[in-house]
Structure to design on (96 residues):
């Protein structure tokens, strides 16, 4: 059974972005590009409607690339339970 993972907007941004001069970001980009082909073969990867919405913002060329990259992944619904969980995580400073 494959592990299930959630692809957050930052991940697809690292994958599709132009190479960064910042070494830390460039490292994240390289690691993401190395991992990307495995997302559909080794994992059950999902995105959410929120990721789709965020990926479609910004520079039109970059947004097209982001949307194309996440196209193969099933989209999770956003319901009130998910919104409440997200609010708790953010309020509790579970993520920056």
């Amino acid at each position: 059974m494959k592990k299930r993972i959630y692809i957050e907007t930052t991940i697809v941004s690292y994958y599709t972005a132009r190479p960064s001069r910042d070494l830390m970001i460039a490292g994240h980009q390289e690691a993401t590009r190395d991992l990307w082909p495995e997302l559909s073969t080794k994992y059950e990867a999902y995105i959410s409607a929120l990721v789709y919405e965020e990926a479609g913002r910004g520079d039109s060329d970059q947004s097209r690339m982001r949307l194309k990259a996440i196209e193969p992944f099933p989209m999770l619904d956003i319901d009130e339970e998910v919104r409440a969980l997200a609010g708790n995580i953010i309020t509790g400073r579970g993520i920056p």
